[in-house]
Amino acid sequence: MEEALRQSETRYRMLAENMSDMIWVLDPWTGRYTYVSPSCLALSGCTAEEIMAMENPLAVFNTNPESAEAAFARLREIREIAATGGQYSRDRLETKGRRRDGSAVWVESRANGVYDETGKLTAIQGISMDITERKRIEEALAKKTEELARSNKELEQFAYIASHDLQEPLRMVASYTELLGKRYTGKLDADADDFIHYAVDGANRMKRLINDLLTYSRVGTQGKPFISVEMKDVVDTAMANLKMAIEDTNARITCDTLPCVLADDVQLLQLFQNLIANAIKFHGEKAPEVHISVARDESDWVVSVKDNGIGIDPKHFETDLSDLSKTPR
Questions:
Q1: What is the reported pTM?
Q2: What does each C-alpha distance from 303 to 36, 46, 72, 279, 299 come to in angstroms?
Q3: Are 75 and 57 in contact (CB under 8 A)?
Q4: Pairing, β 252-255 against β 289-297
Q5: What is the rounded CA–CA span in Å between residue 113 and residue 121?
Q6: Is the distance from CB of 10 to CB of 16 less than 8 angstroms?
Q7: SS (H, E, C) 258-287
Q8: Helix 265-281 / helix 231-241 crossing angle, nearest 10 deg
Q9: Which of 298, 317, 294, 315 is nearest to 306 (CA)?
Q10: 105-118 pLDDT tens trace
Q11: d(Cα 232, Cα 225) in Å, to the nearest integer?
Q12: What is the pLDDT of residue 16?
């Protein structure tokens, strides 16, 4: 039995001492290591003898104050658990520190309690492994995820703006192709009728595609919780985005003192930018003039945007003209 025990101990010692991860045994009451495998040298830069001689060995990887405090706090919790008769097992702790040579290291430690026949906690045994590379990959992945989210947000905004700006020229193309169809179908040869049909059909299909794109682009900005937004900051941002168009047309943008409101800042920016852009794009002979005014209506703010542009042909209104005087806009 003694020989079998000796062979078993030798076998497990060889296994522990040849692993790349650090195997250790800690006395929970003194806070000192009673065994440390040789792999501790690569992990910490300290030999096993140096670690076992340390008065505060838990700090071997914990030059980071927060990590050191977390390790010591966990040891105090383990002592309290043992003092009240509780069982300590399957613990996991990640710490960030530095090796003896100053290089940064992330260490993951997994541990279990060892108890005697009376149920008293006599030791904590565990394994510590270098997870620095894993942490580097996790941080890089988190950064890429953040960049991807930002890129997707920018793409949504671009899709919205592009699809919105394509509405008017497409409406013009569709209107004139439909007009051609009404006036000249049957008056020219068969090929001309086919060409007109293809043009009208293509314009209508493109209109549906652009509307679908506009709907898709709105998905990412719907349902966002409202926050306090300084409306002046939003208008200033919209004007900055339209700086070249404003300068090219000598546009003049004025506004009342604008309030702070609860809103979706992205949608509010798109709203003002689209209104100002449309006023600049469809101006008359005079330079564009846009004025943004606000008025209090009980608990609400009513915002009005007025310009000196050419306006919209009534036939393109989607709202009944009789309702316009009743609807704030």
A1: 0.46
A2: 72, 69, 59, 16, 13
A3: no
A4: parallel
A5: 7
A6: no
A7: CCEEEECHHHHHHHHHHHHHHHHHCCCCCC
A8: 50
A9: 294
A10: 898 888 888 888 88
A11: 20
A12: 66
